[in-house]
Amino acid sequence: MIPQLGEEEAQAAAEAIRSGWVAQGPRVARFEQEFAAAVGSGHGVAVSSCTTGLHLSLVLLDIEPGDEVIVPSLSFIATANAVRYVGATPIFADVDLATGNVTVETVDAVRTPRTRAVIAVHQGGVPFDTAALRKAADGWGVALVEDAACAAGSTVYGQPAGTGARVAAWSFHPRKLLTTGEGGMVTVDDASSAARLRRLREHGMNVSAADRHASKQPVLEAYLETAFNYRMTDIQAAVGLVQLGRLPGMVAQRRELAARYHSLLADVDGLVPVRDPAYGQTNYQSFWVLLDGFPVSRDEVLVSLAEQGISARRGIMAAHLEPAYADVTPGPLPVTERITRDSLILPLHHKLTGEDQEHIAGVLRGLA
């Protein structure tokens, strides 16, 4: 992934610096409003990363030690880590082979009386079935947190991913389409939830630093609960506002590149490329292929691609196989382990040319 940044972002960051307001301030507030509107949510709360956004989401829901939170193992390790940050126990659910996402069935298979929440991931930008999982979560009486780290620009049932979510966390890391360098956002529809999230990201203060400095009268703030320093800077938000304007074009370009991959790889036996689910469209934040009867192992494919100057990566990690979770004994996760073993992510970025894609497809075809 190569960030799509240009002179407009550089100018916006420079203007923020020249303004003298470089910490969380008016540009953050504007970015929150515009991003929330773009994803169909009532309120946005900018934070320092998606990881901190997931942490605050669980604090908001009062998840605590003794609680269980169901998560996919097939996700970047931050998804599971956030559960441990609040002292709760992550319970790993398996995923659907085609989308890489948890489903009602895979979540229900590991649900217990101690389940308080589910974190479902829109994996690699491929949306999960929000309607089905939200309905199931409501019926079970558990909270649903949507890990939308990769999902800016994806759609579900014709609406932006995140529309109608009780709480969703987003990433603006450079590997995402919309980037602020580091940074993230939590979106919620409920005003009181947004207000608490803003306190939680800023040491628990009952008035923000920006409002305090803007006041013409002395403001004696109070600290209402033990909280955190998870703020975004105005410099980051300035870049984010420009990136938000670019987002529709970036998604359209990535979908064109993905369509070309689908065409070029159609005759390569043993490769199953990621595709849109029936209920939505992916932004193709990642373009992965699953090896299904391919004559060469995934790791051998990566070596062969590297020897031809092609920078591909292994597929999505499985947290339960990492040393950090060696103390966890999950139930069977056959689909998760198959995807993490047999998938790889092909290059997909705004500088990728048709010739590049033909070269990549040619190398894969030669290995089949």
TrEMBL record:
Parts forming coiled coils: none
What SUPFAM superfamilies does the database record attribute to this sequence?
Answer: PLP-dependent transferases
Which terms does the UniProt entry file under GO BP?
Answer: polysaccharide biosynthetic process
Q: Which CDD domains match?
A: AHBA_syn (cd00616)
List the cofactors: pyridoxal 5'-phosphate
Listed Pfam families: DegT_DnrJ_EryC1
Name the UniProt key words of this record, in alphabetical order.
Aminotransferase, Pyridoxal phosphate, Transferase
Q: Which family does it belong to?
A: Belongs to the DegT/DnrJ/EryC1 family.
Q: What is this protein called?
A: DegT/DnrJ/EryC1/StrS family aminotransferase
